[in-house]
Amino acid sequence: MSSLALTIGDPSGIGPEILLQAWLKRNEEELAPFYVLGDPALLSARIRLLKLDVSIVEAEPETAAAHFGRALPVVPLENSLDDLPGHPLPANAAGVIEAISRAVEDALSGRAAGVVTCPIAKKPLYDAGFGFPGHTEFLGYLAEKITDEKSRPVMMLAGPELRTVPITVHQPLADVPASLTADLIEKTGEIVARDLAERFAVRAPRLAVSGLNPHAGEGGSMGREDADIIAPAIEALRAKGIDAFGPLPADTMFHAAARRTYDAALCMYHDQALIPVKTIGFDETVNVTLGLPFIRTSPDHGTAFDIAGRGVAKPDSLIAAIRLARLLADNTAKHNA
Question: In this structure, what DSSP letter does residue 227 have?
Fold first, then answer.
């Protein structure tokens, strides 16, 4: 099968060094082959800075696997990247965007088995005119542009003991109640159930659905959203044959016994979903984008500009993302066979 495509992320962050360290651990971690869409000169400079025993080789996606055992395959970008660890530069935006775009093209064409993205920083991209809220929305746009089919990206955080999905994502908490609709919850639940079956090989996915308010609204005394919006969405999912249940008080959903009753938790807002999964398995949790016509995973952390170039960043979450991307690609291939 094809290699995985890794994007370099923001080159001023820890992306370059954690992907170099992941390659160094390729045998120890039994990682499947991958290649990096990046700037060979920048990666060479980072190797020298960190004194890493890494060789790189310029390659094409189709030849990456043949090189992977002895050198890190790098597919050069047309846009060069300036190397200034810890200091994000709008001038690097073109290369960051090119890496993501080409990785998606490789995945959709079959040249790559999936996409693993290193962290990006939004502000330097915004300063350079980037018109998307973040990675996920841009990936959805690229999928639609290339395939001419509607895409609905859904964020999942997948750890070894818990998978969570935020229904609303990057928006102020004050805006969440007005953004919640039964249709949004229902469509998100459908995508999650489908991808759990097709990509995670969960035969009969069980979805636990959180409430929005304390005690899931306490019968309407603490807000009507749970009864008027969330409960009807759950009934609609059940009518489609999806094993969804709730709304559940969020404060009792994530202990060990509760986690054994479901395969993924649908949560109403960002922190409700991300706090428990990162608390339980921070270094092993992976950001997965569901609802796309290709596999995409990412570490669950950010660019960490404060430690970039110091050699102290841990590659654990990236390694977990690489491993999960391979598993999801293999599961999908078996499902579609």
Answer: I
